[in-house]
Amino acid sequence: MQWKHKTSPTPVKFRVQPPAGKIMATVFWDYHGILLVEYMAHKSTTTADVYVNTLKSLRDAIKEKRRGLLSRGVILLHDNAPVHKAKKVQTAIAECGFQEMNHPPYSPDLAP
Fold this sequence. Notes:
The protein is of the alpha+beta class. α1 runs parallel beside α4. It has helices spanning 48-65, 69-72, 82-85, 87-96; strands at residues 25-30, 33-39, 74-78, 98-102. It has a domain at 44-112: Nucleotidyltransferase, domain 5, CATH 3.30.420.
């Protein structure tokens, strides 16, 4: 409701635009900065095969941006998502030479 005089013009209503939608991004970084940003295709789901390709892209990005880091060791912090626990993903982590640090469940320090 809005207070107005009888002779005042009716208020102009703005046209509502539909939202742009959600975009899912996977971001990998280290203490120097961002290593890799990958965006998911519209209306697609993260599966083990998609995540394996992302890990391979991460390995290539590390080779390009941080020379020598792969030989020193890369540690991934994963949460308990089902895609992170898949056998294909675990095999790809080993093939890429990464180590995995498991995310402790119910940890308020790491997942506020």
